[in-house]
Amino acid sequence: MAKRIDVSGLTAYYGxxxxxxxxxxxxxxxxxxxxxxxxxxxxxxxLRTLNRMHEVTxxxxxxxxxxxxxxxxxxxxxxxxxxxxxxxxxFQRPNPFPTMSIFDNVAAGLRxxxxxxxxxxxxxxxxxxxxxxxxxxxxxxxxxxxxGLSGGQQQRLCIARAIAVEPNVLLMDEPCSALDPISTxxxxxxxxxxxxxxxxxIVTHNMQQAARVSDRTAFFNLAAVGQPGKLIEIDDTERxxxxxxxxxxxxxxxxxxx
Amino acid sequence: MSTATxxxxxxxxxxxxxxxxxxxxxxxxxxxxxxxxxGLAGGxxxxxxxxLIAAILYVVGTYAIAAAVEGKRQAKDRIATSFxxxxxxxxxxxxxxxxxxxxxxxxxxxxxxxxxxxxxxVADTEPGGGIYHAILGTLEQVGLATVIAAPIGVLTxxxxxxxxxxxxxxxxxxxxxxxxxxxxxxxxxxxxxxMLMFDMQPFGFAGSLALAILMMPVxxxxxxxxLKLVPNELRExxxxxxxxxxxxxxxxxxxTSIGGITTGxxxxxxxxxxxxxxxxxxxxxNAFINANPFEGxxxxxxxxxxxxxxxxAGSGAAYDRAxxxxxxxxxxxxxxxxxxxxxxxxxxxxxxx
Lengths: 258, 353
Ligand SMILES: Nc1ncnc2c1ncn2[C@@H]1O[C@H](COP(=O)(O)OP(=O)(O)OP(=O)(O)O)[C@@H](O)[C@H]1O
Ligand SMILES: [Mg+2]
Fold this sequence. Notes:
The complex is a heterodimer. Chain A is an alpha/beta fold. Helix content of chain A is 36%, strand content 26%. Chain A has a single domain (3-252), classed as P-loop containing nucleotide triphosphate hydrolases (Rossmann fold), CATH 3.40.50.300. In chain A, helix 3 packs across helix 4, helix 3 runs parallel beside helix 6 (151-164) and helix 4 (118-131) crosses helix 6. The longest helix of chain A has 14 residues, at 118-131. The termini of chain A are far apart. By secondary structure, chain B is an all-alpha fold. Chain B is built from 13 helices and no strands. In chain B, helix 10 runs antiparallel to helix 13 (316-347). Classes of the chains: A alpha/beta, B mainly alpha. Bound molecules: adenosine-5'-triphosphate and magnesium ion. Adenosine-5'-triphosphate binds next to strand 2 and helix 1 of chain A. Magnesium ion binds at residues 43-44, 173 of chain A. Chain A: Keywords: ATP-binding, Nucleotide-binding, Translocase, Transport. Chain A: It comes from Streptomyces collinus. Chain A: One of its GO terms (cellular component) is membrane. Chain A: InterPro entries: AAA+_ATPase, ABC_transporter-like_ATP-bd, ABC_transporter-like_CS, P-loop_NTPase, PstB-like.
């Protein structure tokens, strides 16, 4: 299921503004890779190029290659819709569909894509909710609206929705930034379980979180405001946090910068 | 700062003299009484003058009394509040009096017979007859106009919000704005010129076409606003699940905004229902029942009101019918508004637990 991501020479623009420049990295299957870096350095932008969500923004343009197990996502004839089915995404702010019940939210990906068997739907929803550690809290109110859950529950609902379509890769953009420590812990535990099945990439501003959940960590930085963001280094998380090879990384992690 | 200055004894700076809760009502009653007195004494006959004097007295009195008792700042607060009340009453009085006089004069001949008979065998100056043919005409003409304008309007708005980039969408937005300002008589003349070009006689559907021209820009504008209210995050959530864009619009964006869109359509229907000018030009009016909107002149409610009034030759019966038809029209428009509100509430995204 899980797939390797191989990025080479990736540059992304918003109109004429170059947001990230010449990024190359490899993300191993069945691992968690964390992106850290100062605000505005292009972590979200880079993450969104990995499932072709970047081009949804008006003026969004990408150069370079993203190989998903040897297939270039930006090659000719590649359908962005199919890419997004393989590479799922969880957003910073929980965004359940307000018109749908909890059940329908989880089933949304399958239903809207139209490829499912009716008899399997309930099973898949239950499995996904269990996978997102939410089943026990919502099993008695599956027909209630998803927006009636707490913020942390909504975020786990969004994770359940993302894993219900069985993607190969799961991208998470600051999934815990709106959550309390307990919900955060629940989601971190969940990430630990999910990495058995998926390739996970997570953006976070929380150093401890990066250290706790990830196997590898990538540090992004930008030379100055208005300059494009760049990948400074990517290495095993332990190394990044104990003995990084670039001075800027150490400064950022230890809180000394500028 | 030492705590000694905060001793509970002594006059508090946080509390001041306040007028009692009922004081605005008392001042209102007082100024009305005074205004009536002045009006009688000064021999002013117009009730409007009495009302204006009362309003001025109320505003001035509120300020003077509040300034004397509560101080300058509270007085300013109260004068602002009293201005809002006066403005509200000024807005409501014409509306209320319009509805009141329509109801009072309209109920005289409004009954089941009136609603179920036409003017076929009744001369305009005689009592009797009804508006069945006009209701039928209005429903058919407005219904056909909606069938044309609502889908085109909604699809245009979807294009503008979800797909429109660059010059084409700018041009469409510009023309929609221009269309919003088209006087109804011009829309009527436009269709009339087509009708004359093809040498056709007046018929209901021609009126529908003119009404559709008037309705379309309103639907586009209101739908556009509703679609813009749908958070982008929902679209992205759906796209990120691998849902194609058209399905995202159909299954996520439209259901989220359907309440508001329907409300907008209902309100635009309410707006065109009262249009008289294009119907006068294109549908002509008919004393007999004509259920076929595609052939022959038809009646319609606003047109009926106008024609009863114009052809009355001073007959009270025709006036009564015109008022009763007005009442029916107002009731129909109100019903549409209520239905629109009901739909908006029913379809609003649910947040309950
Ligand atoms: N929709 C957009 N249109 C234009 N420019 C954008 C857009 N989104 C982001 N940018 C620009 O791209 C650059 C990178 O932004 P991005 O959101 O990727 O940063 P980030 O690293 O995710 O920051 P944060 O940690 O605050 O989320 C910034 O300079 C930003 O101003
Ligand atoms: Mg970001």
